[in-house]
Amino acid sequence: MSTYGYFDDPSREFVITRPDTPLPWLNYLGQDDFFGLCTQTAGGYSFWKDARMRRITRYRYNNNPMDNDGRFLYVKQGKSVWNPGWKPVRTKLDAFECRHGLGYTRITSRKDGIEVGQLMFIPPDENLEVWKVSVRNRARRTQRLTLFSFVEFCFYEALNDMTNYQRTYSIGEVEIEGSAIYHKTEYRERRNHYALFGCTRRIDGYDTSRDAFVGVHHGLHDPQAVLAGKCSNSRAYGWNPCGAHQINLTLKPGQEETFAFILAYVDQGDLPKFDAPFVLNKTRGREILAKYSDLATIDAAFAAVRERWESLLSAYQSPDAPDQHLRRMVNTWNQVQCMATFNLSRSTSGYETGIGRGMGYRDSNQDILGFVHLLPDRARQRILDIASTQLSDGTCFHQYQPLTKKGNADIGGGFNDDPLWLILSTCAYIRETGDTTILEAPCGYADKPGSTDSLLHHIETSITYTLNNRGPHGLPLIGHADWNDCLNLNCFSKEPNESFQTVGDIAGSKAESVMIAGLFLYVARDLAALYRFLGSETDATRVNANYADMLKTVEEQAWDGAWYTRAFDAAGNPVGSKVCEEGKVYIESQAWCVLGGAGQANGRAKKALQAVEKFLYRRDLGCALQYPPYSTYRLELGEVSSYPPGYKENAGVFSHNNTWIHIGWTLFGDGDRALEYYLSICPSAKKDHDVYRSEPYVYAQMTASQFSPTPGEAKNSWLTGTGAWSFVVASQFILGVQPDFSGLRIDPCVPKKWKSFTVQRRYRGVTYTIEVKNPRGRSKGIKSLVVDGVKIDDNVIPLPTDGRTAVRVEAVLGR
Ligand code: GLC
Ligand code: GLC
Question: Where are the alpha helices (DSSP H) in 617-737?
């Protein structure tokens, strides 16, 4: 238990015990089309599918106070005004608790004998959110109070909403019917959808004009209507529509009232748009409110949220993994984060505004690695969507918009690692499902609309692209950047208003990436294995030859003496080499050369990992991205040298790339180091939350490193490739249950002192219960594997051919 909260593992909840956490601690609601961001103070907003194009409630990023818009309830009791979530009024509460659970957040607070519970969730497959509210009188006397709800509507297109006031101040339109507030801005013109904010209880008033409810010179911390104790039944016409309900309550001692607010996004479909001029056809809205008017329906919907998660998570559980941090991450929180990164890529969080970055090509491919076991069909569709943003020459749109699935032209392409990640995600999908039909699934190229090439064609195009775009050392050209978005070797920007990501002429450039070479080695092995599985020996042999060729190049050109060089800049000078003054050792080339199988025969792989340990690793922080940090801006390197030392790509601890090193140690059978490194970045293992500041239950993109003045401070939580990769580390490489083309491979790598553990894995319709025993205190290697009583020689469990749906496996470590 820390100052701010604790894990309630059996309930799969993180419990926050005071509202003033060091940063807002976020949770996500929803996992289909309707989503909400919700912090411990009920801050956040909701959107449908796309946080830029269909934002339903308004949110001001980088606000001060931070996180000051949300799903607010106000209680007015005598003179006192308070929020159950503490913000925005910030009246001191007598008790506060926030439980972030799987797809829901429940806040319970008490003040002057009144207890309010606010449970927020999005029912499965619905385009709406529910706030179930209960108000209870815990005092010995009858109490009177007024409760207000409040949301501020967004005009759907979030960027326009916060920049174009000459228009937006004059477009707002609403209708009111009973307790239901219909937000119908732009509905008369091209929109066929509206938002709805209703209440299941009779109301005593409402407001739909923000100026009326809040007041022009007031703030959300002292809204006029709440101070006055009543709404004015305002009807917004232009300016800023909001939704506020007023409910007067008189509660006897012990009495409780429970009701709910419903916030919905309604697509009119092919219903007639209007009942009469200016009168919205409210059929769908009324149906929604009727359906949820009943508390039993609401409780059933909440139960469905929880059941859905339990069923998803049962695809991978290790109830007795000996390390509690790894256990709770693997069993619950890491999988929850994988769901969020899959759904939202890098688009919307406390740090991503939902406007700038949509779905990332490389990001979303990697996100699939940690998600595919949860909902393989959705992973399949995503892979095909991503592939369709590739161009026929092999380059890819770096990002695309979730609503349109079209590549973002303003960022474009030219990140030369992008094409290769598609092979990782595709192989992961086939390893999980055995479904090779995906390879023939039609997915055209973005520059050939209407064409129908296959996914396999995209994969071959990607391989060819890398092979054909190599520089003077025979290594792959980097383009605008590789995985390290900030290694901009062709940018040479002197102009502060330019984007490092897009500026610079990459045509004809010589700058090369060793990291892409390592990644190529990795995917070539994956692809050769896939071809062998498909029975296509010729293709496997061809890809193996490509592998051998790239491996030779890496060993001849990229070994720096004690580690792998990171890149060669546009002038052909090494980056990440002993000859560099700063940025001598980088993490990514060590990681990918090792994962790609370089340095195996000659001992270099081990040396590369040792260099990481020596120069980059700190047990309490993780591994910095490189060493030493750049102290000055380097024109020839770009954004990597733009950050102050110890932050972000300039030698911060960038959690994502740490996970590859963790896998590296497992390949060497060093289970003690693998777990120690795993814990070095594990949020659950962070002890001092005043230093760490970010959520203890999900990974953050970056932690300030030993090279900064604030080591250990994390930033940019939730939407990071660390989610997927750390799940891969823990589930596949430490606990060692690895999906392979022809079955589950068992190959754990654990600390020597671990005695035993169990993994329950649902895989291709079969539930495996895998018991791993370690009587000899080893880290790696299978001495024996017994499957349903039958000893087998290999460590891949054959798929049952007799229709069994439950299989018991006993594995003993030690060779
Ligand atoms: C961010 C980006 C990712 C990139 C990484 C390193 O996480 O989303 O695409 O690889 O930064 O620069
Ligand atoms: C990635 C990097 C970040 C960089 C950004 C550019 O997110 O982590 O440092 O500024 O890409 O889009």
Answer: 655-667, 671-680, 689-692, 722-728
Nearest CA to ligand 1 atom 10: 483
To test the pocket of ligand 2, the residue of 366, 398, 410, 486 to mutate (highest count of ligand atoms within 8 Å of its CB) is 486
The question of whether 793 is a catalytic residue gets the answer no
The neighbour count for residue 577, using CB atoms within 10 Å, is 20
Amino acid symbol at 739:
P
- Contact 516/588 with Cβ under 8 angstroms? no
pLDDT of residue 1: 53
DSSP secondary structure of 538-553: HHHHHHHHHHHHHHHH
Helix or strand run (H / E) with residue 115: strand 114-121
At 624, the amino acid letter reads A
pLDDT at residue 784, rounded to an integer = 97
Through-space distance between the first and last CA atoms of the chain, rounded to whole angstroms: 41
Angle at alpha carbon of residue 280, lines to 278 and 282, rounded to 5° = 160
With residue 759 as reference, give the H or E element that holds it. Answer: strand 756-763
Kindly state if the Cβ of 130 falls inside 6 Å of ligand 1: no
In which residue are the tokens 């030493």 written?
628
Please say whether the beta carbons of 791 and 771 come within 8 A.
no
- Pairing state of beta strands 55-57 and 80-82? unpaired
CA of 589 to the centre of ligand 1 (A): 15
Looking at residue 37, its pLDDT comes to: 98
The residue contributing the CA closest to ligand 2 atom 10 is 486
Amino acid at 157: E
Residue 451: per-residue pLDDT:
87
Angle, in degrees to the nearest 10, between helices 537-557 and 455-468: 30
672 alpha carbon – ligand 1 mean position (Å) = 28
Q: Are strands 743-746 and 790-792 parallel, antiparallel or unpaired?
A: unpaired
* Nearby residues of 154 by Cβ (< 8 Å), 6 or more positions away: 45, 55, 56, 57, 58, 59, 161
Q: Which atom of ligand 1 is nearest to the CA of 720?
A: 7
Give the pLDDT score at 404.
Answer: 86
Nearest to 5 by CA among 727, 710, 694: 694
DSSP state of 626: E
Neighbours of 215 (CB within 10 A): 15
Q: Closest ligand 1 atom, CA of 657? A: 6
Residues in the chain, pLDDT under 70: 1
Give the whole-angstrom CA distance, residue 98 versus residue 114.
17
CA of 414 to the centre of ligand 1 (A): 15
CB 655 near ligand 1, within 6 Å: no
CA of 355 to the centre of ligand 1 (A): 17
Closest CA to ligand 1's atom 7: 720
What span, in angstroms and rounded, lies between the C-alpha atoms of 489 and 476?
A: 13
Among 415, 420, 485, 625, say which to mutate for ligand 1: greatest number of ligand atoms within 8 Å of CB: 485
Both structure tokens of 256: 């409780």
The full DSSP string for 244-303 is: EEEEEEEE-TT-EEEEEEEEEEEE-TTS-SEEETTEE--HHHHHHHHHTTSHHHHHHHHH
**Helices marked H in 717-799:** 722-728
Ligand nearest to the CA of 484: 1
The pLDDT of residue 536: 98
* CA dist., res. 714 & res. 683, Å (int): 9
Total Cβ atoms within 10 A of residue 257:
15
Separation of CA 367 and ligand 1 centre (Å): 12
Q: Which of 207, 453, 485, 747 is catalytic?
A: 485
CA–centroid distance, residue 631 to ligand 1 (Å): 22
State the residue for tokens 């081990």. 606
Going from the C-alpha of 349 to that of each of 13, 51, 223, 578, 698, the distances in angstroms are 20, 10, 27, 39, 12
Q: Which residues pair with 435 in a beta bridge?
A: none
Count how many Cα atoms sit within 13 Å of the Cα of residue 537 in the half-sphere of its side chain.
Answer: 0
